[in-house]
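Dear colleagues,

As part of the handover before I leave the project, I'm documenting each prediction I ran so the next person doesn't have to rerun anything. This entry is a single chain, and its sequence is reproduced below.
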Amino acid sequence: MAWRRPHFDLTNTEPASRVYRAIAHLARNLVPVLAKTTWTGGDNVPQSGPVIVIANHIGNFDPIVLGQFLIWNGRWPRFLGKSDIWKVPVLGWVARQCEQIPVYRNTDRAGESLANAERALAEGKMVAIYPEGTITADPDGWPMSGRRGAASLALKTGAPVLPVAQTGAEKVLGGRRISLKSLFGRRKDVQVMAGPLLDLSRWEGREPTKEVLDEVTTYFLDTLRDMRAELTGLEPPKGRFDLRQGRRVEIEADRGE
């Protein structure tokens, strides 16, 4: 396949399990069939040490797109994902073999995900997290209201935070709902862009209260919104979609666990 990307071994020397490497091989062959990807900002990806990736969540296919971008730019990300995936035969086994991190939302195990993410960062690994917590419900695909997990992880660990914006992946397999018919037809245009590491110095040393975490979350989402605007050439909306209210509201410090 002429438009496959070169093998990831040429750009990634970080160790990974055989299963994770096999998944990357699969993505190398599958993604070009479904999407024509354009990558920018790969030189912003730290090549070693702990790093937190924050990204906008636009559809069911974008973790594959984001993962491929990060792998080919030198790192093997550990995604925080809904624990339901770990209950699915084969998928759950793959997630465990690839050291992905389950999120047990609204259970007595809810704190485990951030604890496991902290452990991965302490081991010098890359952790990827969606500040929105789920696929955006904004009608035009802009980042919606967020949760505090990404901000809490960043302030507690002090790990560098890498913002990555993406667009187009929602056309491959649908947005909030899986759309198999979207797999057919011409290849979809998908763009992924990494920005410079974020400056969180203004919050250094401050107690991570809900108000502080909301400020950091808003900063994360504003950054991803502006990066998506740069990718698409579109003017971002004045407000941000609030999932609880089902509409866009004035942007202020985002709330939510």
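The mean pLDDT is 91. Helices lie at 18-34, 62-72, 91-97, 112-122, 149-157, 170-173, 210-232.

All the best with the project,
I.
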